[in-house]
Amino acid sequence: MEQSQKNTGKLGNWIRTSVTARMFMIGILILVLLIPLTFIKDLIRERSQRKQDVMKEISKKWGGEVLFYGPVMEIPFKTFQEKTVVDESTKKIYTETIESVEYAYFFPETLDIDTKVDPEEKYYGIYKTSVYESSMNISGSFTKPDFSEKEVEEKHILWDKAKIVFRMSNQKGVSNKVEIRLGANAYAFKSRYTTDDVYESDFPALNTLESSLLKKEDIPMEHTSDFSMKLNIKGSQQISFIPAGKQTTVNMVSDWKTANFFGEFLPYNDDKVHENGFDARWKILDINRPFSQQYFNQLPRLNSYAFGVNFMIPVDEYQKSERSAKYGFMVICLTFLVFFLIQTMSGINIHPFQYLMIGLALTMFYTLLISISEHSNFFKAYLVAGISVVALITAYSVSILRSRSFPMFIFLSLTALYSFIYVIIQLENYALLVGSTGLFLILAIIMFVSRKIDWGNS
Prior knowledge:
- The protein is of the alpha+beta class.
- The model is unreliable at 1-11 (pLDDT under 50).
- The protein contains eight helices and 16 strands.
- It is elongated and about 110 Å long.
- It has two domains: 2-51 and 317-457, no CATH class; 63-310, no CATH class.
- The chain is 38% helix and 30% strand.
- It has a 16-stranded mixed β-sheet that branches.
């Protein structure tokens, strides 16, 4: 029994005095603290998913994203197919001609879209997303349809059944009577109540709307037919177009200052973004896009060639909180390293339990950050959480280190560390450069401070 107590005493004394033992103990504590850090990251993802669900709910009530495709002229035509038939009673073979109706789709020669978008932030409880009201003035022209590709005779074209169709997402958001004017006549649209038969998760489903039958004088048989239409629609998050015209021009203006242009085609004007919002202009020619001006049998799905604007809200609180949590491991390691260097150089004893309390205080920073940022902006949340944790650890270190100089050094170190991380989070293009430079300087300082430690007695 006495020998056992001596061995235990030696082990305890080795843990208290050995630098290697302290390093091993700190390493174990850091690994243990990775468990609450993992839970915190899961919490951030869960709250972020909750926000996405709320945003979808807002979009469902207000109106989803808008994708406009058209207008397109739809003209039916007759086709004939010969079929060999055997008469069962007489065993005679004869040829039967089967007549069917197919459809041809002709894109406009020119398509001009002038759009004004008035976006705003919509709140649902503590969550927000971007919604907008838009006004589109759509104009252009159709030229005489060319059926030579199918070798369709003029007499088999059903000109009197011609219509104008277009496709769009978010039909629910339309707030005006939709009609197209060809010449002196106006044609109202009605829904076919059909959606795409091909599902693509990256794009919204499109509904097809068709006009009433076109009058003969408005069909471009001998002359070009000019058209115009107006569309007022409410939507959310983004608005985009498919360049259906042989020459498509789009002009979009808005007072939204954080717009993100996306898609196959970007605005050509360099002054598209200004201090009051943006004024973006696109011009797409048929040679710029990999699809034809006419199609037979069915209207193709061209969502992947859409272009437009996303009314993005700059990096939200959950994204910033998740980015800050990624630095949690580094914060714990560097903080423990500061206490380890103080303990090693001054000879002050710090118990493993005290290290654990400091580590838990560091992890509490992230729960405070998430909860406060849901009710305030990220800067205020980060400031409150940072001050709270730094003050708590500094006050705790006073009782541990029993001096004023070391706690002041810890206070300055933690303040600099959290400030450094905040700067990295705010940066986008230079985050890697600043982060790498900062870590290099931290490593240099640690190497300089630890150079006088006698590692031989570890």
